[in-house]
Amino acid sequence: MFDKFSIALKSIGKNKNRNFLTMLGIIIGISSVICILAIGDGFTHRINTESGGHNDKNRFSLDYTPKAADENTNNGFTNNDAYILENISGVDHVKLTSSYGDSDGSVSYNGKKTTMSLNKAPKKLKLSKGKVNSLDPDDPSGVFISSDLASRLFKNKSPLNKAVIVSDNTFIVKGVYRIGDMEYKPDMYVSKSVFKELFADQIIQDEAKIYVTSSANKKKIGKIAVEKMKKFGENKQTGKYKVLKPDAMTKSFTKILNYVTYFVAFVAGISLLIAGIGVMNVMYITVSERRKEIGIRRAFGATSSDIRNQFLIESVVLCMIGGIVGILMGYLFVSLINLFLPFKAIITIYAVIISLSVSTAVGLVFGYIPSNKAAKSPLVGLLKEE
């Protein structure tokens, strides 16, 4: 076997330019497949990493959803609900939180009133109007408002330094910010201390994060928790309780993304079909050029199987060299792509294995017919040609 590989490498080396051009199609096809799989895997890894908070082994979440008929309800989980949940066997502790961090309310200016959402201001905010991009913690009266809220309250007037009323408290507009088409921001920002003092209690606590012990069965505890809330939840009449399953959503999204990635990789891999035709053509030429060698080997006792295997190995080696170079080129391209992507493309071991397997398969499939032709060449005919 080693001799056959050695002969194959020597044969490929004799026609470097021709074989390099033949391998070029394989190199391009494999490097394209590597890049596409790396981008898909990198994006999937990013999604899984960002949803990692939901995949905590010792935690799951219980969700409260108001019934459609109870639009005015602002109830969720209460401290008594948390106490009931904490008494379930296997539960370590419970933390009530909100899936919707904003506080809803109304704001008025000169008797004109409108609804709005409100939250604590980020450290820095890009403003379209105003001189500062952060609220002074020593001045609790300052607020930032969105351009949409400014339009509703002030129309064409400048809102800067105007007083607005929120929950019987007076605030001064210090700046206006815009909200892009693809982003979400509340209508108003107040300082962190003001939000905590005046508005934090108004947020609906519609999510109970249940932390369980390491030996507990989360699925079993989840069922018990839902049953407990259905029986004893303080707001059981106005809403429904269910266990959140973000893991399932993430897995479903990842599955779809993988299908898309494999399909695109398959389309890119079609170029390997064209490269395979090139390999077949080169092997036909090689067989024709080496009919004398085939005749001599057959005369010295080589069987048809020996001749077939020799050319088949040569075809596979040619494609594997192209595949290895394609993988190296793929690594280079992925390094360059990572300079521009918002996430890191990742080349996994299975992408490398798939690429090597595909390049080997191309060599076997497209090299078989020329190799078989060489094997079936009659000895008498070969010797007569000489």
UniProtKB/TrEMBL annotation:
Q: Which UniProt keywords apply?
A: Cell membrane, Membrane, Transmembrane, Transmembrane helix
Q: Where in the cell is it found?
A: Cell membrane
Q: Name one GO molecular function term.
A: transmembrane transporter activity
| Chain ranges of the ABC3 transporter permease C-terminal domain | 266-378
Superkingdom of the source species: Bacteria
The record's annotation in PANTHER family points to:
ABC TRANSPORTER PERMEASE YTRF, MEMBRANE COMPONENT OF TRANSPORTER-RELATED
Task: Output this protein's name.
Answer: Permease
- Taxonomic source organism: Companilactobacillus allii
